[in-house]
Amino acid sequence: MEHVNITTPAFIDLHSVSKHYRQHHAIDSLDLSINKGESLALIGHNGAGKTTLLKLILGLTLPDAGSIKVNGLVPSQTSDRKKIAFLPEIVSFPASMTGRELITFYARLKGCKQSECNRLLNLVGLTDAASRKVGTYSKGMRQRLGLAQTLLGKPDLILLDEPTSGLDPSLRKQFYNILEDCKSAGTTILISSHALSEIETKTDRIAILKQGRLVIHGTLDELRNAADLSVQIRVSTQSGQTSIIIDTLEPETSYRKYNDHCIEFDCHRDDKLRVLQNISKIPSGIVDIEILPPRLDDLYIHFAGEENDESLNPQLTNPRS
Amino acid sequence: MKPILIMALAEIQESIRNRWIVASILLLLVLATSLTLLGSTPVGITKASLLSVTMVSLTSLSIYLIPLIALMLSFDSIVGESERGTLLLLLTYPIRRWQIIVGKFFGHLSILTIAILLGYGIVALYFVFEDIGNTQEWLDYVLMMASSLLLGGVFIALGYLVSVIVQQRATATGISLALWLFIVVFYDLILLGLLLADKAHVIQSKLLAILILFNPADVYRLFNLTGSETAALVSGMSGMTQADLLAPATLLITLTLWILIPLTLSIYIFNKREV
Predict the structure, then answer these.
(1) Which of A240, A247, A287 is nearest to A265 (CA)?
(2) pLDDT of residue A165
(3) Could B85 and A92 be called an inter-chain contact, meaning their C-beta atoms sit closer than 8 Å?
(4) What is this model's ipTM?
């Protein structure tokens, strides 16, 4: 019997893509595919090639080598862009125009109706401010206006470049909720971000870029397995009783004692259960136990390996180091 | 066609919002009104009326103002949008790069049309009510308005050319100002200097005519000041009308080429530009 291999073609498919500007390799032999309806976080230092990669996918710049297909087509200036949306990292809309005028302009270009503009302004909470000039908007409001324009025409693909920088925590939450709704509707989402702690649970997969190269990509769990980093265990005890924990640890285990009732130590994933069993045998004095798996911050530092780079967002600084 | 129209409308809308259009109308209106008032004294015994005098005076001043207004409208069209980040966003929409330039051009040209029509048109109403000017003079006045628009078009296109070449808005400002100074001020001075220094008469009238065609401001000046007998008489340039190379039709074609060439170049360079 003939074997038929049925595979879903990737929505975005990059094969050996390279792009350089003069001597600088912005993207270097990069292979990556993203399936339809999948969300992927693109992380890396400033200059790692994130924005160039987004521009390549958008067809705004052409690769020097390799091939890119988006929904089976080569992206270019002339491709149909009605179903692709983008939010640049820095966008300052003309200050003298109102929010409604701007969203209407973009809607006309995509052939959307005015009713959709109103719906989106409402979705991002800008209905009341829609008649105000954009010059009077706060950064968060401008960012929301930017998000509204990306949602015009129910795009199949949304590319976001540092979308939440400058947003307060509640706006970030709203932002991700809206994206979650888009994803549920089958939209493919690609987010480039520095804000690792907030992005780690928001996307299906994570891709780490370093100097134009794809270091690793996969789910958070896959990245954790590949990194094989220690788990951190934090134990709170009754006042002055941290020594009961220290006594259970292997002699070579290094630990950090924050005060007289809180201690933290690293432990290999395979030893975790054994260590916990030892602690649970302690008859009294333990108040709480927290198990902290490696965060994306830690994984990023592990894979990208540049802990002291100043271009990194402060969130990347390892608090335990 | 639709993206071009959307782009043009957006430019007009923005110029209304940021009061650019009002400022341009007022500037041209004040200029035309003051020239009409000033010009109402010295006509003397000629067959020209106040309308011709005003037209000739307006031509001389429009040479400076229209290019300046046009350049200020256009010089940051691309580089400014690039700096603000809106260009990157716009290019991800279903609009081609040539459509952006052509759309902006029609938008900016419309703004200039409104400014010229209202600025110079309101003053023309005075001549209508006072019943000043014959048919030829009115034709000259209308042609002056139309050619002012062409002159504006030239500098809008030149502004785009600057805007697609440079990477920073500040550079575009400097180059635009230098371009304006060179074309409307220094070019004629250099030409005059060459003619004065040319004792051996190397520069023949044909070469001079070609050199004049190389400057859109001079083309505009000649078109309006030598276009009709009355205008030539008032401006004192009747001698220039004899050269075939500087016939009104040639001048109009040259002005149109002065729009088309920089506009096409802008599109070509913009298509190659990395964003």
Answers:
(1) A247
(2) 79
(3) yes
(4) 0.86
- Report domain extents, chain B: 2-272
Comparing A244 with A111, which gets the higher pLDDT? A111
- Residue B14 to residue A94, Cβ atoms within 8 A: yes
Give yes or no for A177 touching B (CB within 8 A): no
Assess B12–A contact: CB distance below 8 Å, yes or no.
Answer: no
Average pLDDT, chain B: 87
Q: Above 70 in pLDDT, residue B18? A: yes
Mean pLDDT of A263-284: 85
Contact A77 B88 (CB under 8 A): no
Of the residues A91, A133, A161, A165, the best mutation for testing chain B's interface (the one with the most B CB atoms within 10 Å of its CB) is A91
If we measure between CA atoms, which residue out of B106, B92, B86 comes closest to residue B7? B106
Instruction: Please check whether residues A233 and A158 belong to one and the same domain.
Output: no
Which of B6, B86, B97 has the CB atom closest to A109's CB atom? B6
Q: Which residue has the higher pLDDT, A158 or B248?
A: A158
Task: Identify the burial level of B174 via C-beta atoms within 10 angstroms of its C-beta, where 0-12 means exposed, 13-18 middle and 19 or more buried.
Answer: middle
**A242 and A96, same structural domain?**
no
A148 and A171 share one domain: yes
SS3 content of chain A, % helix, strand, coil (to 5): 30, 25, 40
Q: Determine which of B88, B95, B99 to mutate to test the interface with A (most A C-beta atoms within 10 Å).
A: B88
Whether the CB of A76 is below 8 Å from some CB of chain B: the reply is no
Residue B91 near chain A (CB below 8 Å): yes
Q: Do A168 and A255 belong together in one domain?
A: no
> If you measure CA to CA, which chain A residue comes closest to B10?
A105
Question: Does a structural domain hold residue A140?
Answer: yes
Query: What pLDDT does B243 receive?
Result: 59
Q: Which of A60, A106, A149 sits opposite B275 (nearest CB)?
A: A60
* Helices assigned H by DSSP within chain A: 50-58, 99-110, 114-123, 139-150, 169-184, 196-199, 220-227, 243-246, 272-280, 296-304
Query: Where residue A253 sits, what CATH number does that domain have?
Result: 3.30.70.980
Same domain, A191 and A43: yes
Torsion of CA A85, A87, A91, A94, to 10 degrees: 30
CB contact under 8 A, A84 and B274: no
Q: Please indicate, yes or no, if residue A144 is contained in any of the structural domains.
A: yes
Out of A201, A225, A249, a domain closes at A225
The CATH number given to whatever domain includes residue A201 is 3.40.50.300
Same domain for A251 and A171, yes or no, is: no
Nearest CA in chain A to B4: A109
Quick one: pLDDT band at residue A308, thresholds 50, 70, 90?
very low
Chain A positions in Cβ-Cβ contact with residue B14 (cut-off 8 Å): 94, 96-97
Contact status, residue A216 vs residue A208, Cβ threshold 8 Å: yes
Q: How many domains are there within chain A? A: 2
Chain A within 8 Å of B88 (Cβ-Cβ)? yes
The C-alpha atoms of residue B3 and residue A91 are separated, in whole angstroms, by: 21
| pLDDT one-digit tens code per residue, B87-112 | 999 999 999 999 999 999 999 999 99
pLDDT of residue B238: 59
Q: Do A212 and A268 reside in the same domain of the chain?
A: no
Which of A225, A243, A278 finishes a domain?
Answer: A225
> Does B235 have pLDDT greater than 80?
no
Rounded CA-CA distance B173/B162 in Å is: 9
pTM (2 d.p.): 0.85
Asked whether B156 and B74 are in contact (CB, 8 A), the reply is: yes
Interface mutation target, options A51, A57, A76, A77, chain B, most CBs of B under 10 Å? A77
Answer whether residue A240 shows pLDDT above 90.
no
Whether residue A312 is predicted with pLDDT greater than 50 in this model: the reply is no
Domain that holds residue A190: 36-59+82-225
